[in-house]
Amino acid sequence: MSDSEGAGVAERPELLIVENLQKHFPIEKGLLRRTVGQIRAVDGVSFSVRQGETLGLVGESGCGKTTAGRVAAGLSRPSGGTVMFLSGGARIDVHALSRRELKAFRRHVQMVFQDPYSSLNPYLRVIEIVGEPLEVQAGIRGAALRAEVEPLLEAVGLRPSYTDRFPHEFSGGQRQRISLARALALKPQLVIADEPVSALDVSVQAQILNLMIELQRRFGLSYLFIAHDLSVVRYVCDRVAVMYLGRIVETGASEAVFRNPRHPYTEALLSAFPAPDPDDTDERIVLEGDVPSAANPPAGCAFHTRCPYAVGACSGDAPRLGEIAAGRLSACIRAGELTLQGRAITKPPWAAAQAGGSSATGETGRSPASA
């Protein structure tokens, strides 16, 4: 994205606003299943997604990013905090909706899951899988349903003749295309993509990512893109929010975060990512110790037990996510004094194959944009 495009996105209204989101799971013991503690999977997370923007929610496994995405989608109720969505010019509290209102909300927010093998019902044909949202929400059936589903398959690079096939007849990449078609069926404003390419081969990842970018341009979509692969995040995301142990520790524009991280955990994540320059001699930062338990997080900064820059004050009060520069937020009390190591932004080799090239085309043999 160019600077002018980034500036345009920054001026658009916020479509999704998550404030102080919490999701705790009870720890139960004994025959009476008494609650003896809480797993703080998400512990005070705040972020927003603007219209037409892609926000990357990144972090290592177990940090709570998937749980945050599911709560933001309305699939799970929060323990605290709010999820607000812009609909018809007014903001609605997603978790204050009645069942009937929540059904209507599903039109605006859809989710694409990580595993294309388990997210599709193996007993249903493609026309039933992709068409189910249309049947439930609009009562469309029969020939009218087929007339809606076939263009959706073309849009994601699949042949319309595939409507009567079952999921087991497709490869992983094709299944994820079917998942995208299903997500697009109701013409949503926001798609929450939970690790949408992590279960796919690298060459197929390129095709799906290029397809998602083209679909965003064509349909005016916003994405909440949940991932742990930084090469994917820096390619598709306008902004990045970095999570650690249920909390966001840094946010900012993707290029700014990669080039100049302002939290030690972000620096450690970036150092583990292979440098594009083979002559790069930067050493990998190896964190000491294990990730603390979400059932008993440490006092103060959750990262201080592993942080190479920690001082005594880091174990005091938990630092808040605060603005340290225009558009940059960090939850580190030393953010203003540390000089941290970043990574240069270069496009991956497959990035040149945009829609209209071989990476974005599917079974139709043509660009999704021209379908």
Account of the 3D structure:
With 371 residues, this protein is an alpha/beta fold. It has a domain at 1-108 and 227-371: Rossmann fold. Helix content is 27%, strand content 23%. It contains 10 helices and 12 strands. The chain has helices at residues 3-10, 65-72, 99-105, 126-138, 142-155, 172-184, 202-219, 230-236, 254-259, 264-271; strands at 14-29, 34-50, 54-58, 80-87, 90-93, 109-112, 190-194, 222-227, 239-244, 247-253, 322-325, 328-330. The strands form 2 sheets. The protein has an 8-stranded mixed beta sheet with strand order 6-7-8-3-9-10-12-11, sandwiched between helices. A hairpin with a 2-residue loop joins strand 4 (80-87) and strand 5 (90-93). Helix 4 packs across helix 5. The radius of gyration is 21 Å and the shape is globular. The protein starts with a helix and ends in a 41-residue tail after the last strand. 43% of the residues are buried.
